[in-house]
Amino acid sequence: MPDAGPKSEPIVEVAGLRKVFGEHVAVDDVSFTVEAGSSLAIVGESGSGKTTVARMLSGLERPTAGTIRVCGRDRSRPVRRAAERRRRARELQIVFQDPYTSLDPREEVGDGLLELLALHQSERPREWRQERLMEMAELVGLDERHLRSRPGELSGGQRQRITIARALVSEPRIVILDESLASLDVSLQAQILNLLGDIREETGITYILISHDLAVVLQLATETLVMKDGRIVESGRTVDVLHSPEHPYTKLLCDSVPRRGWKPERALQGAESN
Ligand SMILES: Nc1ncnc2c1ncn2[C@@H]1O[C@H](COP(=O)(O)OP(=O)(O)OP(=O)(O)O)[C@@H](O)[C@H]1O
Ligand SMILES: [Mg+2]
């Protein structure tokens, strides 16, 4: 999709979102919108509620209060019908932190991908799906040997790439990446980041990126939210939030980037020229 221009419809709208587990308020009055084709990063310390927000967006967790609209449709209630579930899967996919939970340990990962293709692309002929499988594998840097492996026979990074391919199979409008790149080495991370950028240019896909790695955030996310104790403490354009943080917590976060050779100025120049 070509550049949608500055004023496009929000593809995700969240208002007054709240989640309480027992006595603990995990997410408290969270509101934000995401424009179609843009990408939003959610950053913040461990336990600040990032994954809980992502799980509510994907329908895995029911909000205690608040509303969620994705692609213009309300998602505050769980789905019952399979057709509706499939439609939602084509709207939004989530790639989890831990790839073990989303892969069947007994199944060759290529077969698993083909099953998903059959589910979401049922109208396409088998040859198309087989070809698409190879394309998807190539996209994330895996070969036929990997496709014939079971999850337990792959490395952590290879498994993570399989889950990214699985998320893209349904050609979703939105993909949530929850620490999905953290287990990859730097060169592979760069490769996947470039790939995600290319996919965005080609398809106008929207990303929601949860990451502790501010360099990754700078490269992929146009907007950034900072969460602390279940609340949004700061938000805005990524370059603004990370370059001149206003909230003391964001300042702390930017100062404590655990990366050697971290040069905010240099990274920001790169981001601004994007
Ligand atoms: N199913 C659950 N039951 C009870 N408490 C939960 C549940 N899921 C999350 N929590 C609590 O909610 C809070 C937010 O958790 P969440 O997983 O959203 O944090 P996070 O920001 O993703 O952290 P991290 O960066 O470590 O992944 C935590 O205090 C956590 O213990
Ligand atoms: Mg998390």
Would you give an account of this structure?
With 274 residues, this protein is an alpha/beta fold. The chain has a domain at 10-99 and 173-272: Rossmann fold, CATH 3.40.50.300. The chain has 11 helices and 10 strands. The strands form 2 sheets. It has a 6-stranded mixed β-sheet with strand order 6-7-8-3-9-10, sandwiched between helices. A hairpin with a 2-residue loop joins strand 4 and strand 5 (73-74). It is globular. Residues 21, 24, 26, 44, 46-52 line the site of adenosine-5'-triphosphate.
List its salient traits:
Rossmann fold, alpha/beta, binds adenosine-5'-triphosphate, single chain, binds magnesium ion, 274 residues, 10 strands, disordered C terminus, 4-stranded antiparallel β-sheet, globular, 6-stranded mixed β-sheet, 24% strand
CATH superfamily of the domain at 10-99 and 173-272: P-loop containing nucleotide triphosphate hydrolases
Rg, nearest Å: 19 Å
How far do the termini sit from each other? Answer: 17 Å
CATH top level of the domain at 10-99 and 173-272 is Alpha Beta
Give, in order, the helices and strands: EEEHEEHEHHHHEHEHEEHHH
Number of strands: 10
Described by strand count, sense and barrel closure, the largest sheet is: 6 strands, mixed
Overall form: globular
The unique ligands bound to this protein are: adenosine-5'-triphosphate, magnesium ion
As a percent range, the share of helical residues equals 40-55%
Mean pLDDT: 86
CATH architecture of the domain at 10-99 and 173-272: 3-Layer(aba) Sandwich
